[in-house]
Amino acid sequence: MKFGIFDHIDMAGDRPLATQYDERLTFAQAADEAGFYCLHIAEHHASPLNTVPVPGIWLGALARVTKRMRLGPLVYLLPLYSPLRLAEEICILDHLSKGRLDVGVGRGVSPFELAYHKIKHDDSRDIFADAYKALNTALTSELFSYESERYNYKNVPMPLRPLQQPTPPMWYGSSNATGSAWAGDHGLHFASNGPTERAKGNIQVFREHFAKHGKAAHPKPEFEGGVVVGVGRQIVVAETEAEALRIAKPAAEHHHANLTYLLRVHASDEAAKRFQVPTRAGLEEQMADGSMIVGTPATVAEKIAEQVETMGLNYMMAYLFFGTMQLSDALRSLELFRSEVMPKFA
After folding, report:
1. Of 1, 85, 210, 269, which sees the most CB atoms within 10 A?
2. Cα–Cα distance between 13 and 176 in angstroms, integer?
3. With 0-12 CB in 10 A as exposed, 13-18 as middle and 19+ as buried, what is 271?
4. pLDDT tens, 78-109?
């Protein structure tokens, strides 16, 4: 069982964005020293949910302030990229991090964000699958040629090559059965989110399809079966239950407002609403459904153990810094997680 870090870097109210960036870099250094496996960063657009909508820039900064922890997007929204340009970016980041890059890919969960980029949500899955094939061809070719309805490359020189050969490990994050099946069919490392029962169903679908595929496309020997099977959880740890709740409640409420911002902007767009992943606003509801874990180290460890057993996990991404949370509270939560929670799963 290993633990990683997940982050949107959502807007934190009155704190200047430059301050937030500095705080997150400090937090990343602490997570690196604490022994977390990987730091995953989201990609979202036109929303206060994500203040690093160009994840490659942020990952370049992270590569220079960390030494051991792996780094990567979860996920690059492939329909929004030129496969050639993205392949070159991946190569740069893999070398900047000295081979610590893990690449998450996806199509984008938000129809609103895709629409801003002139991508129809109904077309996004087919575009994603095509872009994924083109990207992998580019990463593994000295002369890149690929032809499809959308992309046409012929004998493009690829002097930049990944440090990790043939490519960095590839991940897929999904909150639905269709994406979970695709990830299993292609042998990618996998992470889900949301309420425990829904995540459990997605993981089951992934495992069934992965078993048919037979093996990981990019094996990780440090994980059972060579493949990561994980879930993301917002987590707040404090010395007492009351203190954990004091920190978690306003941070969770602010984060949820950021999470649902575009849904409110497009409140009259009934057709698009059906694509939104349902979320629960109340802290108590999120704790009850398993998407948020709050409490003392003993409580947090107990809840994690329950989810590991229920879902069959070998990986959990701890979302320890979100919403209006102060850096000091996030660092304290991280330290308690490192010293009193992680050892129980070593």
Report:
1. 210
2. 31
3. exposed
4. 999 999 999 999 999 999 999 999 999 999 98
Helix axes 196-213, 177-185, angle to 10 degrees: 30
Whether 251 contacts 236, CB under 8 Å: yes
- pTM over 0.85? The answer is yes
- Residue 69: both structure tokens together: 């922890």
Over residues 241-270, the pLDDT tens digits come to 999 999 999 999 999 999 999 998 988 776
